[in-house]
Structures are given as C-alpha cells and as structure tokens.
What does this fold into?
Amino acid sequence: MTDQRARVVFLVRVPAARTEAFLAAYEQIRHQVAGGVPGHLVDQVCRSATDPEQWLITSEWAALADFERWERSPEHRDLVRPMRECFTDARSLRFHIHAQTHSHAPAQTPVETPA
It folds into this structure.
C-alpha cells in the first residue's frame, strides 16, 4: 500500500485581513512545488462558500511517503512559513485514494448559427 496515491487536506482559517498575504504565499508555494517536488501531482486552494475565512488546501501525491518526505525537509518549512503565518487555525488530514471516478459526459458539440 505504500505506492498508493494519496490526498492531503488542510482545513485552515485565514482572517479577512490576511487573505491577500495568504493567497500571495500560496501562489509562490504552488509553482515551486509543481515544478520540482517528487511525487506531487496536483493541488487546489478552495474558499468556503459560506464562511469567507475558511479555506481548504488539497494536494494529491503519487504516494503518501512523497508528501511526508517533502514535509520533513527544511525547504518545506521555509517555503510554507509565510503562508502558515496567515493561519489562526489549521487541521491536516491524510488519505489514501481508494477509488476515483471520472465524468463520462460527452464533449459538447459547438452550436452552429444560421448563415
């Protein structure tokens, strides 16, 4: 099971006054991680539809060990420090991906306009 893909979820609270700094820090982190952290596949940052101070950061990894190795590195701590300084609360969860379903919706056909 060590090679099973994984999803890491961070549920964080960012005060409105820190939102701009949080998003700027996330921008710096996401490009560096996507460009060179082994095992990283994709990430997202999401804002709650009902609570503007509640945020969700998710990332998908080839294996949980890839994330854990990066998380233990000094580079990780230095890179995420500016973002973490924006949090007033944070919770981290780690999951192995058990199943995944993709949409089978057909591609939309362009609508032709009469000449």
Residues 6-96 form a domain with the Alpha-Beta Plaits fold (CATH 3.30.70.100). The longest helix spans residues 19-36. The chain has one domain: 6-96. The mean pLDDT is 91.
